[in-house]
């Protein structure tokens, strides 16, 4: 890929990141929880019940960073911890009723926001935009996984 294409992509990505960050802060896209807590809540919501090990893998965070995030969510009553029924080395994490309501509000706020964003894209292109974005995320994940395999445990920023 040519250097100017990479630079154009990076310029667009920086703009996208700033716009996304602004939306999450200004529109309460994360409903009063930190970005890390927001991502953790939504992963737990998607999984139903999970372990710290599984969340660490999915979020690409080291266990100590994730443990602090989970502790904050447990202390605010958004996440419940229970002993794993068949393996005492693990605990199961799930959303509390309050956590479910918060995740629902996060989803609703962001669904409204991105619905309005997609209004500015021709409807015939919606599926392609999502597919191409998914392809980019998959390529980024593959690169991240390769670096993680070489350098060790996952770190923030992958």
State mean pLDDT (0 to 100 scale): 89
Enumerate how many helices there are, as a single number. Answer: 6
What is the helix fraction of residues, given as a range? 55-70%
Q: Give the helices and strands as they follow along the chain.
A: HHEHHEEHH
End-to-end distance, in Å?
21 Å
Q: What is the beta-strand fraction?
A: 5-15%
Descriptive report:
The relative contact order is 0.11. Helix 2 crosses helix 4, helix 2 (35-47) crosses helix 5 and helix 3 (52-59) crosses helix 4 (63-75). The chain has six helices and three strands; from the N terminus they run ααβααββαα. The chain has 158 residues and is mainly alpha-helical. It has a three-stranded antiparallel beta sheet with strand order 1-3-2. The longest helix has 26 residues, at 126-151. It has helices spanning 3-26, 35-47, 52-59, 63-75, 97-118, 126-151, and strands at 49-50, 79-83, 91-95. The model is unreliable at 154-158 (pLDDT under 50).
Question: Tags for this entry?
Answer:
mainly alpha, globular, 3 strands, 158 residues, disordered C terminus
Short description:
The protein is mainly alpha-helical and 158 residues long. 67% of the residues lie in helices and 8% in strands.
Produce the secondary structure layout:
Blueprint: H1 3-26, H2 35-47, E1 49-50, H3 52-59, H4 63-75, E2 79-83, E3 91-95, H5 97-118, H6 126-151
Antiparallel strand pairs: 1-3, 2-3
